[in-house]
Amino acid sequence: MTEIAVKCAATGNELETGETTIMPLKLALRPGEKIVINQAVIVNGGQKTELVLENKASVLRERDIMTEEQADSPAKRVYFAVQMIYMFPSNTSLYQEKFNNFTRDFVEAVPSATPIILEIGEGVIRGDLYGALKKCRKLMKYEGEVLKNVTVAE
């Protein structure tokens, strides 16, 4: 995910691009670890490797990638839609519509999740899709907590 840049150690070099300061992103990859950078799947070879990205890119680590089959709950479907907007910007309108439908259904079913949904939507609107994905993880956790308190009527 692009925002890894904020968490990862920077090389100390800052690049100025217009009004935005972009810090180089340093990624350490384990042997065999996959990473997607701007839709290209990259698999690390046999040794620990470090990559430094010096410009903005859409980056998702293997552990952050969700397949459509794994999106088996309402919150995961929201995550999947945001992930697809993030990774495939040419299909934004398709996944934006799905995102809107999933979030609307989620709020109707769990109104108490509205603040989290609003945070996610704000991230999507601002183009902070990595931030929106992080908020989706918060939504998935909240969904789990809500489901713990649900009882099935017999």
Structure, explained:
With 154 residues, the protein is of the alpha+beta class. Helix content is 45%, strand content 18%. The radius of gyration is 17 Å and the shape is globular. The N and C termini lie far apart (43 Å). The N terminus is likely disordered.
SSE order: HEEEEEEEHHHH
The end-to-end span amounts to 43 Å
Shape: globular
Rg, Å, rounded: 17 Å
Largest sheet geometry: 3 strands, antiparallel
Count of helix runs: 5
Strand element count? 7
Rounded mean pLDDT is 85
Order of the strands making up the biggest sheet: 5-4-7
State the helical fraction.
40-55%
Write the layout of secondary structure elements.
Elements lengths: L3 H4 L7 E3 L2 E3 L2 E5 L4 E4 L2 E4 L5 E5 L5 E3 L12 H14 L4 H18 L4 H13 L2 H20 L6
Antiparallel strand pairs: 1-2, 3-6, 4-5, 4-7
Descriptive key words:
single chain, 154 residues, alpha+beta, 3-stranded antiparallel beta sheet, 45% helix
Put the structure in a nutshell.
The chain is α+β, with helices and mostly antiparallel strands.
